[in-house]
Specification:
- The protein is α/β, with parallel strands linked by helices and 491 residues long.
- Helix content is 42%, strand content 15%.
- Helix 8 runs parallel beside helix 18, helix 12 packs parallel to helix 13 and helix 16 crosses helix 17.
- The protein is elongated and about 85 Å long.
- The two termini are 21 Å apart.
């Protein structure tokens, strides 16, 4: 389905005219449809708005903006158009749209002060073609719009956001709603792009089927509702039918991390869960959760027992963690046993990358850990999260989960983006729970890619449900346990 597919800006620029021609639709008609979609959503979201202020630049986004202005005016709204560069003439369809606005006795002003009177602001300043930092006078107008009290609805993408990476190019519109056309731009769904887009709405302009035949998507959107769940269990199954998971971590003082991982795995349905931990952590891990088997001895025997292994939460970076890590990695590489790697184990991977090829694995870095794995800065990761997750998957021959707003999953073949999730999940221990969820799914028979995608969606949706019930602030990672159990049992 086209509404679950992501595209780069160049794909859309190259193919939209071809798709329109195949459908017998003129490009100006597409512009009119785009403007109609934006106005429809503005009415749906901001029904009481009486004063529209439409910001226009010099490209096709400006044409869309003029059409929105005309539609709002015809609907009886008070409409003001602010042109960023009023002396620069428009061309083509954008000029036609501007002239239609002027013919309807519409005015074009340059005074930013009118923004203070707006009930809603329509952003038609910059489109997908911008490749450098936003310059004056666009930067001043974007800043004034962001500082106003009015909600902003962005046309196609928030001005100043890079369509492919989601990076802020100096300054960007902070939209309440973004209405994007033809194909969803991948920069809208992760990182800063997701934060600036607000609620993203998609309008196919009536030619989506023709467009989809012209180019393959760059990535796919997934969520807990759209991804396949676990199959029903056989009536004659037993505990070992559902996997034996070994969780490794919990150095002195950090027992809670591996406890979160192990308990999350139990709640996700792993048949048996054992924890290999530091001697000083045994009591902390086992207290209150008697279903966990806990040990500090016979690591090789535990590795042989397990059908899947998770390593990293609370592991630390001392001699105990180094020795444990090397034993686990060597065993899993030799025996091709599935492995989920997180937290401190990722930092050790960064130091030993050439020693342990990561086949049959899932790695779950946050941007800082990803930067260490790729020997770059965290800002480099966040500047282009799509490139980063693909590079990690390729460089380490693994399935990579790059955590953050709009978590990305890549297996060196395809890339997925989870649309669920919210800031409630930005709390210490949340990633430890995710590790346990993914590892439990592998233990129950999913492959690494399937487990990574489903696990990310279950974890993110659980965060959404927790936030809806109690708010985004103050959520504990352990609050997710029972919600994950509900979700993993839902049809």
């Amino acid at each position: 389905m086209i509404e679950h597919q992501l595209f780069k800006a160049e794909q859309i620029r190259t193919n939209e005219a071809i798709a329109a021609k195949r459908c017998g639709v003129a490009m100006y008609t597409l512009m009119e449809r785009a403007g109609q979609a934006v106005f429809m959503h503005s009415v749906n979201y901001f029904a009481d708005a009486l004063h529209y202020v439409v910001l226009v630049g010099v490209g096709n986004n400006a044409g869309d903006g003029y059409i929105v202005a005309n539609l709002a005016k015809k609907a009886g709204k008070n409409v003001t158009v602010i042109a960023a560069v009023p002396d620069k003439p428009l061309s083509g369809d954008a000029l036609t749209a501007q002239q239609a606005w002027l013919d309807a006795t519409g005015e074009i002003v340059t005074d930013f002060a009118v923004l203070e009177q707006a009930d809603v602001i329509v952003d038609g300043l910059l489109g997908t073609g911008i490749q450098s930092d936003v310059r004056s006078p666009f930067s001043e107008l974007i800043n004034a719009a962001n500082n106003s009290r009015a909600p902003i609805i962005a046309i196609d993408l928030p001005s100043g956001i890079h369509a492919d990476t989601g990076a802020v190019q100096g300054i960007a519109i902070k939209a309440t709603v973004t209405v994007t056309f033809m194909g969803i731009k991948q920069g809208l769904v992760t990182g800063q792009g997701r934060a600036h887009a607000g609620q993203c709405e998609f309008a196919d302009l009536g030619i989506a089927d023709a467009f989809a035949l012209l180019c393959p998507p760059c990535a796919l959107l997934i969520n807990q509702q759209t991804i396949n769940s676990l199959p029903a269990r056989d009536n004659n199954s037993h505990k070992t039918s559902h996997g034996k998971l070994l969780c490794i971590g919990g150095n002195a003082g950090t027992a809670g991390a591996i406890r979160l991982t192990a308990e999350a795995a139990l709640k996700t349905g792993a048949g048996m869960v054992k924890v290999y931990t530091h001697t000083s952590s045994i009591l902390s891990v086992s207290m209150g959760r008697p279903e966990l088997m806990v040990t500090d001895a016979n690591l090789i025997a535990s590795l042989e027992w397990a059908s899947c292994i998770a390593i990293g939460p609370g592991l630390g970076l001392d001699s105990w963690s180094e020795a444990t890590f090397e034993t686990v990695m060597q065993y899993c590489f030799t025996n091709n046993k599935p492995l989920v790697i997180d937290a401190d184990a990722l930092n050790l991977i960064a130091q030993h990358a050439s020693s342990f090829p990561l086949t049959n694995t899932v790695i779950t870095p946050h941007p800082g850990e990803a930067a260490r794995l790729l020997n770059c800065s965290t800002s480099d990761i966040e500047t282009d999260r799509f490139a980063a997750v693909k590079r990690l998957a390729h460089s380490y021959t693994t399935t990579c989960v790059l955590k953050g707003a709009g978590t990305l999953i890549s297996n060196n073949n395809k890339t997925w983006v989870c649309t669920d999730g919210n800031p409630a999940l930005a709390v210490g221990g949340s990633g430890d729970v995710l590790t346990g969820v993914i590892a439990a799914l592998i233990a129950q028979g999913l492959d690494t890619q399937q487990a990574a995608c489903l696990g990310v969606c279950l974890h993110a949706k659980a965060g959404d449900i927790a936030a809806e019930r109690d708010g985004e602030r103050g959520m504990l990672p352990s609050d997710l346990f029972m919600i994950v159990r509900e979700l993993v049992n839902s049809p």
